[in-house]
Design goal:
alpha+beta; seven-stranded mixed sheet; five-stranded mixed sheet; globular; binds glycyl-adenosine-5'-phosphate
Length: about 525
């Protein structure tokens, strides 16, 4: 499947099957804001639950929090967001389209990387089992030429970012002959900084005194509550606080579906550690979070770590977990060693001590923080991208196509569909009894309309792992057909066994057990 095509297909599929709708669609939509439909809301809830259980329940030293979206405006001065939460933007003078200058450069670099990957693919095809990838990468002239380009570009780009040198960022775009994706023109404006925070007014007072911000990250709600939680929960370092919730950013370029939105949800955890021990925990969280992603079995080769070209103002180490989306490898999660920056800043701006007394060391200090931060919507898109499959299938001698979402069973929006074969002969009555029992345990769907084949296709398309068909044999012997989504295999099982079989397969513990 061509990559661009598959993004379009995923967007269309999400709408057709009630996963994601454009916000305010009847008014022609609101750019980069989305609503989750009946299946989307279930999948989103299940991802959130898996994250929560993996972070909070599996770690005895992590607890949860739900802080408000609005915070005292000083919070954002202290955190550095008022002064430095900027993206470099550039406009194309011909198309009048606006872009993030850093992303234009990163995408250009990714294209060179794709050329290398293509050479490797060709090499594999040509040399088959004799192919030595390491040697190929070290000797092939095309690979070496392109790798040199990447290295030179990376060095130049990193230096420009570190120096906040906007002229140099523009010059890189000019020198690399990067063209506007819409007009193909290379007629660029200067690069300018653009602050991403949305502001609004609190209460009825006008003027700057009442200006407050919609939080651009959930993390600060954790920092300002860290002592409340530490004291009331009698937490001992190292310990963590986890939170999920909405965040808002006035993104310059909000494209690629729910990948980059203006209103989105984050799942963040701040882990408070002794100064000097942050690197040990940074490595721990890198490993743990990658394991969490891989547990979903969307393909281990679809993940990679990417070190930041420029560290954020608060970090002394930072890495992204990237996923191979239809538009290429992109960040899904960040792991950041944030030092004592945030707590020290809040201590300074609030005038309140935010130190921890370490009984083992018998001294007080401002803890260091390692953060894991993942976008729930981006994770949603990761799962859709990894799970969407178009398959040719042959049934009863006829070849057709089906679209199936191979979502991990524990996260699937609907766990089981209960399908009486016909509307007659008492089959719906038996099906209803089965449904009434199963719906106490998980999200089940009862469907009687259309042929059984059409109903199977509809359930495949939303990723339902099991379909139960009630037919005439059921009336005779209390057995039903249990159909498995991925293999499409059908087995005859007793009604009394259904709950046990389905529960075992859709249990979220199946995922959690892979993490311990
Ligand atoms: N507290 C750190 C922080 O917010 P970030 O790298 O800016 O770090 C963390 O964001 C995660 O939030 C990203 O890895 C991404 O998954 C998600 N995210 C950030 N901006 C987003 C946006 N505009 N739309 C959707 N998800 C976004």
């Amino acid at each position: 499947m061509a990559k661009d095509n598959s993004l379009k297909k995923i967007i269309a599929h999400s709408k057709e099957y009630g996963f994601i709708f454009q916000s305010s669609e009847i008014y022609d939509g609101l750019s980069a804001v989305y609503d989750y439909g009946q299946n989307g809301v279930e999948l989103k809830k299940n991802i959130r639950e898996y994250w929560w259980k993996a972070m909070v329940y599996l770690h005895e030293n992590i607890v949860g929090l739900d802080a408000a979206i609005f915070m005292h405006p000083k919070t954002w001065e202290a955190s550095g967001h008022v002064g430095a939460f900027n993206d470099p933007l550039i406009d194309n003078k011909d198309s009048k389209k606006r872009y993030r200058a850093d992303i234009l450069i990163e995408e250009y670099r990714e294209k060179i990387q794709q050329k290398i990957n293509k050479e490797v693919k060709k090499g594999k095809k040509r040399f088959k089992e004799n192919f030595d990838e390491t040697e190929f990468l070290a000797t092939n002239p095309n690979v070496l030429r392109n790798q040199k380009k990447i290295d030179e570009l990376t060095n130049r780009f990193q230096t420009a970012l570190e120096d906040d040198n906007l002229d140099e960022i523009r010059q890189i775009i000019i020198d690399c002959e990067i063209a506007c994706p819409v007009s193909g023109s290379k007629n660029w404006t200067d690069v300018r900084q653009f602050n991403l925070m949305f502001d609004t007014k609190l209460g009825s007072v006008t003027g700057d005194a009442s200006k407050i911000y919609l939080r651009p990250e959930t993390a600060q709600g954790i920092f300002v509550n860290y002592l409340n939680v530490q004291k009331t929960g009698r937490m001992k370092i190292p310990f963590g606080i986890a939170q999920t919730g909405k965040a808002f950013r006035n993104e310059i370029v909000a494209r690629q579906f729910v990948f980059r939105m203006r209103e989105f949800e984050q799942m963040e955890m701040q882990f408070f550690v002794r100064p000097g021990e942050e690197m040990k925990w940074y490595e721990y969280w890198k490993d743990f979070r990658l394991k969490w992603h891989k547990s979903l079995e969307l393909g281990d080769n679809k993940y990679r770590f990417h070190k930041h070209d420029k560290l954020a103002h608060y970090a002394n180490a930072a890495v992204d977990i990237e996923f191979d989306f239809p538009m290429g490898f992109k960040e899904v999660e960040g792991i950041h060693s944030r030092t004592d920056f945030d707590l020290s800043q809040h201590q300074k701006f609030s005038g309140k001590k935010l130190q921890y007394y370490d009984p083992e060391l018998q001294k007080s200090y401002v803890p260091y923080v390692v953060e894991t931060s993942i976008g729930l919507d981006r994770m949603f898109m990761t799962i859709l991208s990894g799970a969407y499959k178009e398959e040719k299938i042959t049934e009863k001698g006829k070849t057709t196509e089906r679209i199936v979402l191979g979502i991990p069973a524990a996260l699937a929006p609907v766990k089981v569909a209960v399908l009486p074969l016909t509307k007659k002969d008492g089959l719906p009555d038996v099906a209803r009894k089965i449904m009434d029992k199963l719906k106490l345990h998980f999200n089940a769907q009862y469907e009687v309309k259309d042929s059984i084949g059409k109903r199977y296709r509809r359930q495949d398309a939303i990723g339902t792992p099991f379909c139960i068909t009630i037919d005439h044999k059921t009336i005779e012997d209390n057995t039903v057909t249990l159909r498995h989504r991925d293999s499409m295999e059908q087995e005859r099982v007793s009604i009394s066994e259904l709950l046990k079989i389905v529960t075992e397969k859709v249990n979220i513990n199946n995922l959690l057990e892979k993490l311990i």
